[in-house]
């Protein structure tokens, strides 16, 4: 058994388009209702649930007479506009039969990459839960641009799990879990537990089929699971049919064990939720100071920069070898910095002597692929 799931008081559950919809038939009400029954049972047992649900675009295809997932942005947004209404109304009706009130929360990646928006989302979700409502979160696909292909909500679910301080994250798919090969093409063994990302180094993870209704795949689920596991949240990846078993703590699917203590909200936001606006190139001495002595970054240790950014924008700190060392909020505009690079504080005018990135506004990126 997995007590971290059986005893979790607050759970985030993510379900993808492929588990809720079909291309010709739109929403599969029977499968959606089966999931609602499971989550309502969890609520009846006194546990809190946040549902992250894809499916808006797929649910809008049949009503609009569109065959297959749209390739152009405008059509995808139109399908989302029609489908989101149908998706949430179907959820609301299904949950109402169990006496559960739902609330819709539509987010874009921008809502979690901007600190003020991140905190607003946190307050809204906290209040919905305090009022006994089950939040249903989805990307706001009707206005999203590149976010519309954002991992089929897997990464969003990992971010939401930290925002609401969840005890566990369940990522539901149309396959049983993570395999050491592709079970569609040959023999493959289910991986029961992942305790270190290195355990997956030799495995090729699949992406979504091009003719399907989803945009994700196992690679996006593993990425999301590793983000959550490094943020102190245990994760199970399994099929929607095994949701009840997973939430009961039964050893189904693939479990990603906690790989690091839960970070402070600001550290998590800097590392996983920000989108860097540029890069600062560091010399070896600055890398050592930042990484080993937890020091602030000074202008003397910067050899160059890339991108255009404003003061207080997030930037990546990159060593001479091209490896990302840290991420932080820069104190200067990209137009101001070139005149400061490589100069000691005593050589600068008083208004330019402050740190370029203060250590309190910085987080180390120990695994660049998760940053």
TrEMBL record:
GO biological process, one term: L-proline biosynthetic process
Location (main, coarse): cytoplasm
Ion transport as UniProt keyword: no
Known pathway: Amino-acid biosynthesis; L-proline biosynthesis; L-glutamate 5-semialdehyde from L-glutamate: step 1/2
Domain PUA: 278-358
Binding site for ATP: 14, 173-174, 215-221
PROSITE patterns from the UniProt entry: GLUTAMATE_5_KINASE (PS00902), PUA (PS50890)
Substrates-to-products reaction catalysed: L-glutamate + ATP = L-glutamyl 5-phosphate + ADP
Binding site for substrate: 54, 141, 153
Enzyme Commission (EC) number: 2.7.2.11
SUPFAM superfamilies: Carbamate kinase-like (SSF53633), PUA domain-like (SSF88697)
GO cellular component: cytosol
Localization per record: Cytoplasm
Class of this enzyme: transferase
UniProt function note: Catalyzes the transfer of a phosphate group to glutamate to form L-glutamate 5-phosphate.
Family per similarity comment: Belongs to the glutamate 5-kinase family.
Name recorded for this polypeptide: Glutamate 5-kinase
Source organism (scientific name): Petropleomorpha daqingensis
């Amino acid at each position: 058994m997995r007590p971290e799931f059986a005893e979790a008081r607050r759970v985030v559950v993510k379900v993808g388009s492929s588990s809720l919809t079909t291309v010709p038939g739109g929403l599969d009400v029977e499968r959606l209702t089966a999931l609602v029954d499971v989550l309502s049972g969890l609520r009846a047992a006194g546990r809190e649930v946040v549902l992250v649900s894809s499916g808006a675009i797929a649910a809008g295809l049949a009503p609009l007479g569109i065959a297959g997932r749209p390739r152009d942005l405008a059509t995808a947004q139109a399908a989302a506009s029609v489908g989101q209404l149908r998706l949430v109304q179907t959820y609301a009706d299904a949950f109402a039969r169990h006496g559960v009130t739902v609330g819709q929360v539509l987010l874009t990646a921008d809502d979690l990459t901007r600190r003020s928006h991140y905190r607003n989302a946190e307050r809204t979700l906290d209040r919905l839960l305090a009022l006994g409502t089950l939040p249903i979160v989805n990307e706001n696909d009707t206005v999203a641009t590149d976010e519309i292909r954002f991992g089929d909500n897997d990464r969003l679910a990992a971010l939401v799990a930290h925002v609401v301080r969840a005890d566990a994250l369940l990522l539901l798919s149309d396959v049983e879990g993570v395999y050491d090969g592709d079970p569609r093409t040959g023999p493959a063994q289910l991986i029961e537990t992942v305790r270190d990302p290195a355990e997956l180094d030799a495995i090729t993870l699949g992406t979504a089929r091009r003719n399907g209704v989803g945009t994700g795949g196992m690679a996006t689920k593993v990425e999301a699971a590793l983000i959550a596991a490094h943020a102190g949240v245990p994760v199970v990846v399994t099929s929607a049919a095994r949701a009840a078993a997973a939430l009961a703590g039964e050893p189904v699917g693939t479990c990603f064990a906690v790989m690091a203590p839960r970070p402070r909200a600001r550290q998590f936001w800097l590392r996983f939720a920000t989108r860097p606006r540029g890069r600062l190139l560091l010399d070896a001495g600055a890398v050592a100071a930042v990484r080993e002595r937890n020091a602030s970054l000074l202008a003397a240790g910067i050899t160059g920069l890339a991108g255009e950014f404003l003061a207080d924008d997030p930037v990546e700190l990159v060593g001479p070898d091209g490896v990302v060392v840290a991420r932080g909020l820069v104190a200067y505009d990209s137009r101001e910095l070139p005149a400061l690079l490589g100069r000691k504080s005593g050589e600068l005018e008083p208004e330019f002597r402050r740190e370029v990135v203060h250590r309190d506004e910085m987080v180390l990126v120990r695994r660049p692929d998760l940053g």
